Amino acid sequence: MEKLVLTHLQKIYTQNKKTVIHDFNLSVRDGEFIVFVGPSGCGKSTLLRMIAGLEDITSGELFLNGKKANRLPAKDRNLSVVFQNYALFPHLSVFENIAFGLRIRHYPKQKVNEAVYNAAEMLGLQRLLHEKPKQLSGGQRQRVALGRAIVRQADLFLMDEPLSNLDAKLRTQMREEILNLHQKLETTTIYVTHDQVEAMTMATRIVVLKDGRIQQIGTPKQIYTAPANTFVATFIGMPQMNVFHAAGSDSARWDDFIPLSLKKSDSYTQGRVLLGIRPENILVAADGLPVTVNYAELMGADTYVHGEIAGTDKQIVIRCEPDRDFCSGETVYVRFPEDKCHFFDAESGKRLTIEAAAYEA
Question: Boundaries of each ABC transporter domain copy (predicted)?
């Protein structure tokens, strides 16, 4: 069953006539965990606010549980929103913060108590129910915000960068807790983030956005292994994918890495092909493309080698095992496995390989 359907959604701010969301289309199935990801200003939070009823829709249609909801007030959409800044009432206890949404809807006292205690047990807040928000850590405050969302028993959870104010260790911990909650509650969730790690580790499907437009929709594996264009290819993945102009570099022996069918194409013969390869897919070998090492970063489990392909101005990053040392100025040789190479049109940025067609938005 489709819990949420967005068709040709558009948002234009009348003050400056600026279009921030362009022809957005998405169907969300019951129980999915959808992540909107993209750089700052791409429109992901605006989209979330449109779904929540906090932002007007300029054109297009929004359906919740099969019913058109464009003009339905936020309070009648049966949604729970978790904001970046927690939005807790400082003068209320943890218990009262979690219970607030139920109390204003005049739930019976026994039902309120039962719902709050169940949420507190799920989130490990039992001992903190009488504390005030100022007495809590950032992670504990975020749990309270989650608790307030849980007790509503909403049809849809909306989360707007809920972990961005936490340190790295807490973010990892809270990611796990949110995923565990999703598995227990099976509530359809829309999650907004600029953090690709959150997107890759949490999502059922990812919606990659740029300048208010969908770049690609797919599972984390689809997004990573078959990016629809160069923006997705370089935005998702750390270190980001290496992307080079594939033609016009005889000294780099590019033809060794280009499939014959592609070399015969107009795009290639006219120099309009980009070759992409992820740093972890590059092989350091006895021979191949010569790379001059600039410097190496030891990251613990991996070493990132930054260099330049000899005879060109092409910068390259190689992800290697940590047990090998690299010196600045030395030459290493690399190979690109053909099945790990990605090809894009240099003008449009769109993927040229056939298998991506099913994954493009």
Answer: 4-236
- The answer as to whether 358 is a domain residue is no
Q: Write down which residue in 225, 241, 275 finishes a domain.
A: 225
* In a shared domain, residues 206 and 236: no
Q: Which residue has the tokens 């719902």?
A: 115
Half-sphere exposure of 234 (CA within 13 A, CB side): 16
Q: What is the pLDDT of residues 28-51, one digit of tens each?
A: 999 999 999 999 999 999 999 999
Can you give the CATH number for the domain in which 252 is found? 2.40.50.140
Q: Where are the alpha helices (DSSP H) in 226-340?
A: 230-235, 260-263, 266-269
- What residues does 331 pair with on adjacent strands? 292
Strand order of the β-sheet with 188-193 is 79-82, 156-160, 188-193, 33-37, 205-210, 213-218
Please indicate, yes or no, if residue 191 is contained in any of the structural domains.
yes
Q: Measured between alpha carbons, how far is residue 51 from residues 15, 22, 79, 126, 147 in Å?
A: 22, 15, 9, 32, 21
Query: b vs e for 215-225, b when ≥16 Cβ sit within 10 Å of the residue's Cβ?
Result: bbbbebebbbe
Q: Is residue 172 a part of any domain in this protein? A: yes
Does a structural domain hold residue 280?
yes
Domain around 278 = 230-353
Q: How far apart are CA 34 and CA 193, in angstroms?
A: 11
Which residues, 6 or more positions from 88, have their beta carbon under 8 angstroms from its beta carbon?
Answer: 97, 133, 141, 144, 145
Q: How is the chain split among helix, strand and coil, in percent rounded to 5?
A: 35, 30, 35
Summarize pLDDT for 90-136 with one digit per residue, the tens: 999 999 999 998 898 889 999 999 999 999 988 889 999 999 999 99
